[in-house]
Amino acid sequence: MNEWLSKIDAALIGSITEAVIYFIVGLILARMANRGVKQWSKHRFDLHQQLLMGRIVTYLVLLVFVVMGLNAVGFNLGVLIGAAGILTVAIGFASQTSASNIISGLFLVAERPFSVGDLIRVGTTTGEVLSIDLLSVKLRTFDNLFVRIPNETLIKSEVTTLTRFPIRRIDLAIGVAYKEDIKKVRKVLERVADANPLCLDEPKPIFVFLGFGESSLDMQFSVWVKREKFLDLKNSIHEEIKEAFDDDGIEIPFPHRSLYAGSVTEPFPIRVVADSEQRDMP
What share of the chain in percent tops pLDDT 90? Predict the structure, then answer.
C-alpha cells in the first residue's frame, strides 16, 4: 500500500513539475515572440498596431503552453473546453457592457481615429494616449493624471485628435477702442506675426473684422504654427500684441456703460429734494 502511494505521489509530483516547466517555457517563449513581432512590425505598422499584434501573439503562445501544462497534470481538456464555453455564455449575459466595450474597441482599431502618443480631447478631458486596449483607452492628462475611458464612451462621444495634422491654427479674439483705425490695427498684428519665428508664413495669418461690440471693435487674428510649438506660440503672442499696441498707442478698452434719458446729448436731470419738502409731499 505504501509502495503504491509512493508511486502515485511520484507520478503526481512529476506531472506537476512537467506542468510548471511548460508554464515557464511558455512565458519565456511568449516574451521572445512579443519582441520578435515588435522588431518585425517596427517599420511596417504604427505603434498601436505593434502593441496589439504583440499582445495577440503573447496570449496565443501562453495559451498553447497552458493547455500543454494542464494536459500534463491530467485535466480532461474536453470537459475543460465545455466548462469554458458555459462560463463564456454566462459571463456574456452578465457583462454586456464589457462586450460592448470590446466591440467598440474593434471599431476603434479598424477606424484608427487616433494612435498611441496622440493628444485627444474627449468631453472636458484632454491627454496623451498611453494605450488602446480591448475595453478602454488610457490617457495621461497635462497635469499628469491617469484617465481610463471606456471604448463605448469613445464611440458615442465626439473625439478631437489634436495631433492628427502637422500644423494647427491659433484664433486670437482682439478688441480695440472705437477711435482706433482698423487698417492700422491690422498692420500692427501682421507685424507681430512676421516678427515671431514660431508663426508660419504659409498658410498666411488671417484677419477678420467681426463687428461692433458693446465697447470695442471686435476682430479675430489667426496664425498657423507647428503642432509641437502650439503652446509656446499661444503663450508668447498675446504678450507681444499687448506690447505692440502700447508702442503704437492702440487702446484695448474695458466695458463702458452709458445711461441716457430722452435726448442722447442731454444728461440726467438731477434735483436735490430737501427733507422738509420731502415730508410735505403726499
Answer: 35
